[in-house]
Write a structure and sequence with these properties.
The chain is mostly beta strands. It has a domain at 320-543: Beta Barrel (Maltoporin, Chain A), CATH 2.40.170. It has 4 helices and 27 strands.
């Protein structure tokens, strides 16, 4: 639900917006084992025999479902394995002009709360604070549990910004301050054994995380050489603080207390060569802090480091009445980049690690063609080399008598989830236009879109066995719109998705571990198959 109110006066305006939302979503973040896409039933049974850690093992019901349903298999069988979450947004925006100065301000507050409900098989009772049970000649120390992992959060802050323009100079400045408070806790709502030992509101883990974020920026544009060249200089200062205290889901004690400060400068120039050509260049430095999961899911005792980027871009653009072309060459040099390891934590969030030195370099090419009124074609292509110069893969060995943490050195590998080639294309044609001079009437159009994504590696080892194959997808849309006299319209759209029924996976995860040294490595690869050919109809009605 959304509500908006506004008030406007001669030199400014103010508005209030409220957005209230609630979602309840079945979980499938486990994905499906990659072996199930092309493997024979015998290969799937063999795989399952070595996958006890992930709950298949000798579970014949789950394995048979995997074999029969394949791409549509869901690891979870509990009907209420859901995310249930509410979030309410409140925002006030104001702007005011005083002479040649323009000012704006925003205050906001977001409140959220909800839980992830899980069915757990054979969990230790001690995890939830319950003791062993003695029944006749048997001691029970584990049992099935249904638990809810709660998150309650508040996010609020304010920002201001201003601009001032002169004949050949423009000044922009601003500042903001934000605070986030998140309470994370877990409650068992049903236990096969031991529930009588706990209070109904018992929390088996409980922690609070707080993040503060403050920034200030200033930017200056200056026209030189008769206005043909515009030079821009800007700088941003940020200070980010984290505090996390309490216990986590696995009963680890969390104790994070850190503050980081960043200075992010940028300089660039835009050269208007003539009416049809322009060139531009920019050099920027940027820094980004780790997120909460980087701290609590880190593989070592050391805090994750913020990542730093130096970005150099050089571009050219050519435009005519029917064509526009833009080419941008880029080089992005990272220090301590936080890259995805390919693994997930126990709520489905990706795990990241720092790598000392890495880079992205490539070329982006976009073009648009408008040969006649009503028809437009747009395409974009990116070629990139995404590389980690050197990093250590961290593996855990679960066998007794072996080093529990093993590092494997890699050099010159591809950055995870970073395809070296992507392309997209959209062609649209408005073949019917019966709009009168008063703006009344109807239009109809058809659109065809295409996207191609090259192979992506799920981790940073450049192993094809831990990768997503390249894929290409075609979509189509047919749209009709009727404009009415009250300034509203009626619109009907027919969408045909994945028109050629491509069988592909757009995401996935992987995790490797040892059980007795490097010669006894096991690697799990799970993917998220996307829907085959499908369609939908949407209806729009405005007043």
């Amino acid at each position: 639900m959304q509500l908006g109110l506004g008030y406007q006066w001669q030199s400014g305006q103010m508005s209030y917006t409220a957005m209230l939302g609630h979602e309840r979503t079945q979980q499938a973040w486990y994905g499906v084992p990659q072996v199930s896409l092309n493997g024979t039933p015998e290969e799937i049974w063999d795989w399952a025999a070595n996958s006890y850690e992930y709950g298949y093992g000798a579970d014949s019901t789950r394995i048979l479902d995997l074999i029969s349903r394949g791409r549509q298999h869901n690891y979870y069988r509990y009907v209420d394995q859901v995310d249930d979450y509410r979030q309410d947004h409140h925002q006030i925006h104001a702007s005011q002009r005083w002479g040649a100065w323009d000012f704006g301000a925003t205050v906001h507050y977001t409140a959220g709360g909800g839980y992830y409900e899980q069915y757990r098989e054979a969990d230790d009772l001690s995890l939830y604070g319950a003791g062993d049970l003695g029944l006749a000649d048997t001691t029970i120390s584990s049992g099935d549990v249904i638990r809810r992992r709660w998150l309650g959060n508040d996010f609020y802050g304010a920002l201001i910004q201003g601009t001032r323009k002169w004949s050949s100079t423009a000044l922009q400045f601003g500042a903001g301050s934000f605070r986030y408070v998140g309470d994370h806790f877990g409650q068992p709502i049903w236990m096969q054994y031991g529930a009588s030992q706990l209070s109904p509101q018992h929390r088996y883990y409980d922690n609070r995380g707080e993040k503060t974020d403050r920034y200030g920026f200033v930017g200056l544009d200056r026209d030189v050489f008769g206005g043909d060249v515009r030079v821009r200089v800007e700088a941003q200062w940020r200070q980010v603080g984290y505090q996390v205290h309490g216990t986590d889901n696995d009963l680890r004690v969390l104790d994070v207390d850190t503050v980081m400060a960043f200075l992010n400068p940028k300089v660039g120039a835009d050269w208007l060569i003539n009416d049809q050509n322009r060139a531009f260049i920019s050099v920027a430095q940027a820094s980004r802090e780790p997120v909460r999961t980087d701290y609590i899911d880190r593989a070592t005792s050391a805090y994750p480091l913020p990542e730093h980027l130096t970005d150099v871009e050089l571009g050219w653009e050519h435009s005519t009445s029917t064509w526009s072309i833009q080419a941008v060459a880029f080089y992005m040099r990272y220090a301590n980049q936080l890259v995805l390891t390919g693994a997930l934590n126990d709520t489905g969030s990706p795990i990241r690690q720092n790598v000392d030195r890495s880079y992205r370099a490539g070329l982006e090419w976009t073009q648009e063609w408008r040969p006649f009124n009503g028809f437009k074609w747009y395409g974009t292509t990116t070629l990139a080399l995404n590389r980690i110069e050197a990093f250590d893969e961290v593996l855990f060995d679960y066998a007794e008598g072996f080093d529990p943490v093993v590092s494997v050195a890699h050099e010159g590998t591809a950055i995870s989830f970073s395809p070296g080639f992507t392309a997209s294309s959209v062609a649209s044609w408005e073949f019917w236009n019966r709009i009168s001079s008063e703006g009344l009437g109807s239009t109809a159009s058809v659109e065809w879109s295409f996207r191609h994504v090259a192979r992506q590696f799920l981790d940073n080892t450049s192993s094809e066995s831990r990768s997503l194959p390249a894929y290409a997808v075609h979509d189509a849309r047919l749209r009709w719109m009727k404009h009415r006299s009250n300034a509203g319209h009626i619109g009907v759209s027919l969408f045909l998705r994945n028109l050629l029924n491509a069988q592909y996976s757009a995401n996935g995860w992987t995790y490797s571990y040892l059980y007795g040294g490097l010669d006894a490595m096991s690697t799990e690869v799970y993917v998220y198959p996307q829907a085959g050919r499908n369609g939908l109809v949407s209806v729009e009605l405005t007043f």
